[in-house]
Amino acid sequence: MRIDVVTIFPAFFDVLEVSLLGRARGAGLLDIRVHDLRDHTTDRHRTVDDTPYGGGAGMVMKPEPWAQSLDAIAAEQEGGEDAASGPLFVFPSPAGERFTQSVAREWSAEQHIVFGCGRYEGIDERVFAYASTIGRVRLVSLGDYVLNGGEVAAMAMIEAVGRLVPGVVGNPESLVEESHEDGLLEYPSYTKPASWRGYDVPDVLLSGHHGRVADWRRGQQVERTRLRRPDLLSE
Length: 235
Ligand code: SAM
Hints:
By secondary structure, this protein is of the alpha/beta class.
């Protein structure tokens, strides 16, 4: 999978060189390229923002550097002759649809995703219409709170999607039995020793009885979800 990121803070993405994603990049499973939006400015100050039409607080990201940057990335993609076969453009936004595990699963089958990281009050709205002429566009929120920029949100999405790309996580079984994969939170996990500082591992997990362990885990999943995330049970 190829992933491009457009940002005014490329250094945010240095962490993609470590851990599982760093290894996946080294193994050629993920081709991640980070681009500085300011490379597509023409003035001495490399300006990417301007005042909002209609007034109001803050600054808005100018459209032209975005169009040039997205054009340059889309032009590198082979076979993307129309918007439907172009890249998936993801713009992190608190005003977008919610990012979930099922969205991550869906995106893990994509060939090419481009993340456009907003700053200030966000990106000039016309950029999304323009991007939809060269690819598919999604505005996606990490959660119901406001971050300073799209970088942290893009990082979270890259990690959630990247680990679902075949080969990135060594044991694919571990991806199936996780929170949100079946609409429930994961069951509690324990490791050795069986007794630790006065806390004991539940007996059923020491029983060696697979059926009873599976039943207990399922019950824990439902109970935990009911207590911590009842909204998931009503969806
Ligand atoms: N004025 C915008 C609004 O109220 O919707 C918020 C702008 S925010 C300060 C700057 C940038 O941070 C956004 O363009 C977006 O890229 C990113 N951002 C902030 N919160 C986010 C969230 N919950 N999910 C995804 N991206 C977020």
